[in-house]
Predict the structure of RidA family protein.
Amino acid sequence: MTRVAAETVAEAPRPGMFSNARMHGDQFFLSGMHAGGPGGIVGGADPYLQAKEAFRRVRALTEACGAVVDDILVLRVYLTDIADRAVVGRARAEMFSGDFPCSTLVEVSALVEPGLKVEIEAQGVIGSHSGT
């Protein structure tokens, strides 16, 4: 497997903890992306803005793998409040065109940083997008 980085997505704060993205052949796997970082949470307490930032990071890593977002086949979305599913769904709909990826949505009690409301994992296959 090959580790992949995107210039606009921060790496793990401690090297060796995890990889943001890995590839195996034409398959790519993205760790959970969220809106947190050293400067605070992008979007503050707004779950829609947090989701937009998480999806931006998913897009950046997907493209760093040589894929397009429509090559993403599976999403796992973690919310700290299931009531946020509609606004997170709106951000998701703005990310994809054509067929949407398979998706799992679950509520969790907390994410890695206090104040985070959404985290998104993705995986796919380069070239799986049909373009129609």
